[in-house]
Amino acid sequence: MTRDIAVLLADDDVRYRATIRTLLDATDGFRVPAEAGTGDEAAALAVAHDPDVVLMDVRMPGGDGIRATSAVVGSGCRARVLILTTFDRDEYVYRALRAGAAGFLVKDTPPARLLDGIAVVAAGEALLAPTVTRRLIAEFGPAATARRRHDRLPGVTGREREVLTLVTRGLSNAEIEAALHLSRGTVKTHIGRLLAKLHARDRAQLVIAGYEACLVEPSR
Question: Taking every annotated instance into account, which residue ranges of this chain make up the domain HTH luxR-type (predicted)?
């Protein structure tokens, strides 16, 4: 039997938490072990309940979601943080990912997409809303080239750089396999080496490394 995905809800809006809890309680495969109304409470409950995913708001009293994310990631618990907010500005996206968040969605995300996003993050993947991805690309594209050079990728081989570029663009492992004509095992090996060489916690951290190294340019 498949284990339900445990989701800790962290948001200072009680009505919004109730809406999300109702959605999760009504959907097979999910459960809500606890709710938090402040950032500090979210961090403490994440350690106490060790959920699979923390659905974290950014703006909360008692320690914001960014600080709480950093605390959760640094606590050693298995929880992965999915930031959910109305504020999809670059500063929040980048700070959240830097703090160790595994994904970022805005609050007007449709219910089905939200459920899929929670499942994706629980499975160990990174998740960025399309609007957020475009903003990151614009922020960390050619305009920043003078500040961020390829030497931010020490020891990374040419093939690993190609893989990282596609990861940064949001491609899945299967899509990378097809694009570079590599086997599934080879792609996993390259990603594993990138994680080690770039001291990245997960795929989201690789995305940050790719943007900082200007591997992706904004669409014209």
Answer: 149-214
